[in-house]
């Protein structure tokens, strides 16, 4: 599959710290087709932001084609991470003889099965599937700082990876850092960025922002661009990292609770978020457009770094 690379429909100024206006879809499994970019929706008790891992560009062409083929086939598969470790993950796809016991009794998996039907989608063993991580808590007053830190983190990550135009040549060896890219792991100026990447983080001012976050907020950080969202009227926020395949792509689910959270409220938000993560409420064309836009943003960040004499 050939990439379109620089799409004519790039969103926002490529180096702006602010994201483009997010698309909103109806909640509760409404068959509304969303365009590319972060998706926002409301349940009666929460506001939800979903960044699809599917929409991120990857230099791994094979994984890119496989993930897009699953959407074309109207299939999706996921895992719900367990705090006890991967062997205890709940599988959101059927095994040889159907869903296993934990999956069959899991209310989120059951809800996703039902919510996918209006889109003509079903759960299946697809490669790559995606994992929805356990939640990290964020204070609502932290959200603006958190979102800004992620935007700058994204830029720093792009620079640390190198020129996107040639990255695909070595992606099999490098495999995006994805699952290990929380600041809790790499530190504010950790070795994973290298000297240039670490200095970039410090120069952007993101290090100072990160220090203002709680430990849980720092642990939730990943290199993704988030929409602007006023969280001041919400009681609490949960952030879940989404990893597709072998750390190939990153996504995120953010649930802002209007009042005290309950299992029922969380499940309702997660069910609809997972439907969006499968790509059921978008199209293969919109996903490819989002990837082209992401690649264009990455290339512009790298080109600006080269022009400033900081990258080569």
Quick gist of this model?
The chain is 39% helix and 15% strand. The protein is of the alpha/beta class and 312 residues long. The protein has one domain (33-306).
Number of domains: 1
Rg over alpha carbons: 19 Å
Count, helices: 12
- What is the share of helical residues? 25-40%
Distance between the termini: 29 Å
Order of SSEs: EEEHEEEHHEEEHHHHHHHEEHH
Q: What value does the average pLDDT take?
A: 77
Key features?
312 residues; nine-stranded mixed β-sheet; 12 helices; 11 strands; disordered N terminus
Please, could you describe this protein's structure?
The chain starts with 22 loop residues before the first strand and ends in a 5-residue tail after the last helix. Strands 1, 2, 3, 5, 6, 8, 9, 10 and 11 form a nine-stranded mixed beta sheet that branches. It has a two-stranded parallel ribbon with strand order 4-7. Residues 1-34 and 170-204 have low confidence and may be disordered. The chain is of the alpha/beta class. The chain has helices at residues 61-72, 101-105, 107-116, 143-161, 164-167, 171-174, 183-186, 194-204, 206-211, 215-220, 263-278, 284-307, and strands at residues 23-24, 39-43, 46-51, 75-76, 78-80, 90-92, 122-123, 130-132, 136-138, 236-244, 249-257. It has one domain (33-306). Strand 10 (236-244) and strand 11 (249-257) form a beta hairpin.
């Amino acid at each position: 599959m050939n990439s379109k690379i620089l799409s004519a429909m790039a969103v926002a100024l490529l180096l702006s710290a602010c994201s483009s206006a997010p698309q909103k879809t109806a909640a509760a499994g409404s068959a509304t087709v969303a365009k590319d970019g972060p998706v926002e929706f409301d349940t009666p008790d929460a506001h939800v932001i979903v960044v699809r891992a599917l929409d991120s560009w990857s230099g791994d062409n094979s994984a890119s084609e496989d993930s897009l083929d699953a959407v074309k086939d109207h299939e999706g598969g996921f895992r719900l991470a367990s705090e006890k470790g991967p062997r205890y993950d709940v599988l959101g796809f059927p095994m040889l003889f159907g869903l296993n016991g934990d999956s069959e009794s899991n209310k989120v998996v059951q809800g996703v099965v039902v919510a996918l039907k209006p889109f003509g989608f079903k759960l299946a063993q697809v490669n790559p599937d995606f994992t929805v991580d356990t939640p990290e808590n964020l204070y609502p007053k932290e959200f603006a700082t958190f979102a800004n830190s992620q935007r700058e983190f994204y830029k720093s990550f792009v620079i640390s990876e190198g020129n996107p135009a040639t990255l695909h040549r070595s992606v099999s060896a490098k495999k995006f850092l994805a699952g290990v890219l929380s600041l809790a792991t790499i530190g504010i100026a950790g070795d994973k960025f290298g000297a240039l990447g670490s200095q970039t983080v410090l120069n952007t001012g993101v290090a100072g922002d990160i220090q203002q976050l709680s430990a849980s907020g720092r642990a939730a950080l990943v290199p993704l661009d988030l929409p602007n969202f006023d969280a001041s009227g919400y009681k609490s926020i949960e952030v879940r990292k989404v990893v597709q395949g072998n750390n190939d792509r990153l996504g995120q689910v953010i649930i802002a609770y209007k009042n005290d959270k309950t299992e029922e409220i969380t499940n309702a938000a997660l069910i609809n978020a997972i439907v969006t993560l499968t790509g059921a409420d978008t199209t293969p064309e919109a996903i490819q457009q989002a990837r082209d836009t992401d690649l264009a943003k990455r290339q512009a960040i790298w080109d600006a770094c080269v022009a400033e004499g900081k990258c080569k």
